[in-house]
Amino acid sequence: MTIKSRIAILSDLHIGEKAREFDMRPQGKPAFPNQVGFLDYFEQVVSSEGLSADILVISGDITDRAQPSQFVHAGKLINRIASKLGVKNDSVVIVPGNHDLNWDVAQLAANNNEPFWLDYRFAPFVAGQIQAGYGATLAEALVKPPHFLLQRNDHADLWSFNSAAYDTPDRKPHYGEIREQHRQALADALQAEYGSKVKEKRRIFITHHHLKPQPDLYPDIPDFSGMVNGDQLYDLILSYNFDLVLHGHKHRPWIRATLESGTNPIVTWCSGSFSQQLGSYFDGRIANLWHLVDIHESPPGLPCKGEIKSWAFAPAQGWVPARPIVHGIDHITPFGYVQDRTTISDLMDTALAAAFAHTDYVEWKDVCVLEDALRYQPGPVVWSILSEVCDRLKLRPHGEQGSLDGLIILRNKK
Questions:
Q1: Could you tell me how far CA 406 lies from the centroid of its own chain?
Q2: What are the C-alpha distances in Å from 320 to residues 57, 77, 92, 292?
Q3: 246 and 211 Cβ atoms separated by less than 8 Å
Q4: Which helix or strand (DSSP H or E) is residue 239 part of?
Q5: What pLDDT is recorded for position 262?
Q6: Which H or E element spans position 309?
Q7: Alpha-helix residue ranges (DSSP H) falling in 314-412
Q8: Is the pLDDT of residue 110 over 50?
Q9: Which of 246, 170, 238, 166 is nearest to 204 (CA)?
Q10: What's the CA gap between 331 and 309, in Å, rounded?
Q11: Which of 131, 256, 316, 318 is 20 to 30 Å apart from 191, CA to CA?
């Protein structure tokens, strides 16, 4: 399958004291200058696997406290990351998160007078963008009403939105919002841009907060951090046939593929955290992560198809292929084919029967060659349906539960 475009996603860097490694902090290296740094490991995996990208997305919480020194350091690191991936400055998309507004400045404000406090509390973010070489257009558009901007790219239309524009230091949880007048302004812009035009490129929406609450990591602990008016924003994006929604905020990676009546499938991806120190409650469940989204060749008017590859940080090892049991996400997460369970089961049944006509084992990737639609089913769906199909065909799957990386199917000889 031909890759049409590739998007690198890093989120929630939290440059500052809460970043997990010394080189992600403005004060620099400790007394051991030969120690391998966080980005050194990143560059190693990019080089060893020959990785590159067309677009780099940083989906918020670039810094931890929005201090000028943190943004200066972040700009250097992002430039280094973009350069290593071969991404040009005009293809770097950065949106602010709730940690990217200066809460010290916000606390000085006596009221919510936009021309004063809104501008000044995002001043370090804007200055950091300019110093990093990305220009002022994106940054200034996001910090002023209506807080969104379209960036045209050869590969996609990239719509960025600042969901943290009205965050305050005392707001807990920091759930983000889109005010109705700004949602209406976005609706007007989308109508003017697309109207009844034939879709020519992929449409991607990038923000920091998740539009809808995510599944909870632990039972009985609810998530209250979904964006205010997020449902209305989500419906608006659906109505204009967007393909992908990319965001950060919650440090748990997660994907949602949705098919609403009368719309194309849309995929929402929460990327987790690239370099924040993760709490002990994440141990053995979630890791620091970064991702590459491969969008496969297909007409823009048809559903967007592809796969997301994820790498997790392992101390003393560097960046390794993610595993669902210990890192919270599989190394390979396909997307783009939304269908009912019975149809998928029938396709799998037919493909496996053909694959085992003259062999006793087959790799999952070879099954997908026989039925292309199976290529775009995520691991949990595959394993759930595969167990039923294998029982009927006297086969058995072998690999890590829920993972497609290294999955093989064996003939059951008992």
A1: 23
A2: 20, 20, 24, 13
A3: no
A4: helix 230-239
A5: 63
A6: strand 306-314
A7: 324-327, 341-355, 364-370, 379-393
A8: no
A9: 246
A10: 5
A11: 256
324: exposed, middle or buried (C-beta count within 10 Å: 0-12, 13-18, 19+)? buried
Q: Find, among 191, 76, 177, the residue nearest to 134 by Cα.
A: 76
Q: Cα–Cα distance between 274 and 278 in angstroms, integer?
A: 10
Question: What is the number of other CB atoms lying within 10 angstroms of the CB of residue 216?
Answer: 11
Phi-psi region of 214 (alpha: psi -120 to 50; beta: other; left: phi over 0): beta
Kindly give, in sequence order, each residue whose CB lies less than 8 Å from that of residue 202, ignoring residues fewer than 6 positions away: 5, 155, 156, 157, 243, 244, 295, 300, 304
What is this structure's pTM?
0.92
- DSSP track, 23-84: GGSTT---S-TTSPPHHHHHHHHHHHTT---SEEEEES--BSS--HHHHHHHHHHHHHHHHH
Sheet holding 244-247, edge to edge: 148-152, 156-161, 202-206, 244-247, 266-270, 254-258
Q: Who contacts 83 (Cβ-Cβ below 8 Å, separation ≥6)?
A: none
Is the separation of the CB atoms in 306 and 292 below 8 Å?
Answer: no
Confidence category of residue 414, pLDDT binned at 50, 70, 90: low
| pLDDT tens per residue, range 282-301 | 666 788 999 999 999 988 88
Highest-scoring range by mean pLDDT, 116-120, 132-136, 212-216, 275-279:
275-279
